[in-house]
Design goal:
95 residues; alpha/beta; three-stranded parallel sheet; 34% helix
Length: 95
């Protein structure tokens, strides 16, 4: 199962790394959008896409652009109408 993760270099990075290890332990393929200084390396089951360094409050804007492009191109590949998504599911992880 492919899992897309955004890994900004912030105070929650260590918790995110723990969650990523759980995904790997269960056989998931990780695709990580990581800031330049996160020390996350590509390897078996993990594919790292480097983002620019962390820009503080502007960081979410920089990270959402590739996610939107990924969603758009994925929808095109599977033949979904990108203007009328149906059965949209949301997932929220709570501590």
């Amino acid at each position: 199962m492919p899992v897309v993760t955004v890994a900004p270099n912030d105070e929650l990075l260590e918790k995110l790394k723990s969650n990523m290890q759980e995904v790997q332990a269960r056989g998931g393929q990780l695709y990580v959008f990581a800031d330049a200084h996160t020390n996350i390396q590509s390897g078996d089951g993990i594919h790292v896409i480097r983002m620019p360094e962390n820009y503080g409050n502007l960081s979410p804007i920089l990270h959402v652009v590739p996610l939107q492009l990924l969603a758009y191109h994925t929808a095109l590949v599977i033949g979904t109408d990108v203007d009328k998504p149906r059965n949209l599911a949301k997932s929220v992880t709570v501590e």
